Amino acid sequence: MDESELQAEMTKMTNKSQAYRLQDCINRLNKTRLKKKNELIHFLFRTSQLGQNNSYTNQTLDTLFKSQEISQINYSQTIPKKIIEESPINNDLMNIIQQITDKGNGTLSISEKDLIKDLIFSIQGIESQFISYDPINDQFQVKKDIAISSASRKLLNVMCECGWLFKKIQTFTQSNYNSLVLQALQNSIKEELNEYYRLIAYFENLLAESTLTLRKMYMWLKQPMHHLVQINLVLSQNLTNVQLGTTSSLVISILCRYSKHGCPQTSQLFSRILHQTTIPIVRFINQWIFDGSLNDQAQEFFIERNDSNKIQIRDSGELWKNEFKVNQDKIPYMISLNDSYKIFDTGRVINWLRKQCKFTQFNQNYDLITIDLLGTEQFSLFVDQVNKEYNKQLIQLIKPNFKITLNAIKRFLLLGQGEFIHTLMELLQTELNKPAQQCYRHTLLSILESAFKHISQEVRLNVKLLEPSQNDTGWEIFCLDYTIDEPLNTIFNQKIMLSYYRIFNFLWRIKRVEFTLTQCWKMHQKFMVIPNQFQTIKKAIQLSYQMMNEMQHFIKNFYSYLMLEAIESSWKKFIDECDKIQDLDGLIKIHELFISDILDRSFLNTKGESTQKLLFKLFDYIFRFKSCQELLLSYAKDQISQTDNQQLQLKNLLNKQQNISRQNQNKNQDIIKSLLELRKQYRDQMFDLLEKLKKEDRLKFLHFKLDFNEYYLGIQESKIFNQDLERFIEKCLPKVNEVQIQPNRVPNSKQIVQPQQQQQRIFNTNIDIQNDLRQFKEGLKQSDEQRRQQLQFKNQFTKSPLEKSPLIQIPPTMTEHEKRKNDEYLSSSDDD
After folding, report:
1. What distance lies between CA 684 and its chain's CA centroid?
2. Which residue has the higher pLDDT, 247 or 259?
3. Could you give phi then psi for residue 675, rounded to 5 degrees?
4. I need a surface site. Which of 64, 165, 305, 706 has the fewest CB within 10 A?
5. ω into 264 cis (within 30 of 0)
6. Residue 49 has pLDDT above 80, yes or no
7. 85-94 long-range Cβ contacts below 8 angstroms, 24+ apart
8. Angstrom distance (rounded) from CA 435 to CA 468
């Protein structure tokens, strides 16, 4: 439309004020950058003529509005009859406006009121006449054949999203869950939906008053739609997480994160939901830390009953550790890991005191935990205070009995009361020497009770027989046991008691070795004085005595190391730490460290297996030594007794004496051979043990105690050990040819001519013991020939018939000078 034509039309307008307003709108429109100004001017001009008579025809419209798009409009289309009936005047102008704005199907065109009515149904997730649910796209949308503008259609589709969100949320709220947390979440969401229902009722009231429009409705739904989107987002994170599932911790953690949202409205929304959702968790915490009970049927609390360890929990000592556990995946976001373990420990203490100690006098001055306190700093301080209070009551309750039991175990299972252990060994010696299959518990128990007569206080000791192996005696299977009742069996559980049994067995074996050497010493005391004519026996006993002293030195020092370094030092450290303990877990931990330290220092752990094997071999050699010593002393006793008896029966033994003498010589040689072989084997093991101890810094003191004067080092370096057999044979064994039967000395008899000096025999220092003995036997044959030659001169010195026997040498009475010379010779030979 040209400006001239527009001015001509405006002059024809009868309403001047309307013309001025139209002119002002056109001026403002010209100042803008809109592209289709002519169409807008045409629209304004035609709307300004509403109320006037229709003086325009289609030809006039075509001349005024030359746009190609508008010229193609079919002016025969009409607006709905309902609008025509409401506005019967100016129907032609209304048709023109509809033709410009509406491009839909005129036969399906609806009013805004009908659209709003259907929209109210759709935002509740219900299909209506004009708005339906598309299952393919999973959304509510306006039907495509409805004649509405694209803006209205888009606006309606946006508001229909509320219906889709509402439907999803309603599906969750109508589901059945066993979880109390999810049920609380459902209730809190339903309360939030109540506000949504009120808004819908408000829409219906406005619709009845015909004051509700689509834009008003959109503005009202903007905030509820945002809340529905956020709630649906939270639910989708819970329900789609297959790995974690719909657990309480996941729900609460997500709600906690959204309660700290940057949007204030979103933060307030989820704070309200979180407040209601955490009610079951707060109830669980209060029941646990104040009553020690766990009523969690849905298993959503982060403290669980450990059903997987039912077999192990049969031991009441394992109840403390294995009955309950903390599931870290279920700890809520608002509770820290440290606080969760304090909550777990507090309830476990109360539960243990109720079940094991039958204790009910708890401090009930604390208030219950509230929802507002959860997740705050005051909550952490409160949990810490309650935990310390209940642990203090527990420690005060069990500490006196614990110290009494621990001292008793140290006295008897760790052999701290030495006089009792020595008495018990003497009483049990007869029974324990029997094979393991012939040892009976009731017999040993009666002997054990008799050993308690000298102990004033009551001792709860018992006898425990271990599983026997082949060729075991009672010494190997005997073990002392201490009866422990509740609640101390939590600390002294089966695992700890097995460690005590291992330590007792090891100490008992060492004590047995010491007891064996003591018996050997007692047997030696009976043979301290031996006549000088039994030089071979005397030298053999001296060798045995030397070996016994060497073994006693090892056993006493090693046992002293175990009792002082391994047990007493660990005990002192353990007792000092016990006074600082504030909870039962700490007490159990330091007690386990105490046992572990003793096992480590006593070579009873995996690291000390090689050292333990060396020690057991040394113990076996000591037991073998006792057997050899018994043979030696038995042989010596027989020889000495035969000397006294043969003086009376000399006549009857003259013909048999030579054979008997040879048998005795062979038996003595076998005993000496066994002792030497045993000493060699024993020293070889000692060399290995000392070498192993020398490599470890913490065992250097034990190495020093076992070889403080470097005795074994000197033997090893100078190879004295390889020469021991040669020196013994050269200096001692040739005297075996002397007379073994010595009758009473005859007074005033002359001295027998001394035998000729024996030929010196040189031995190879590198040959083994068997070759030495074979050469030794050959030397004996030569010495026998020399002895026969010497006995030929005996008759000229004899005065009685008893002295005429060629088999007997009767030495004359020696003067004081000769006795002194003989004693000096014997002392020098003893030193060698």
Report:
1. 42
2. 259
3. -65, -40
4. 305
5. no
6. no
7. 89/51, 90/50, 90/51, 90/54, 92/54, 93/46, 93/47, 93/49, 93/50, 93/54
8. 9
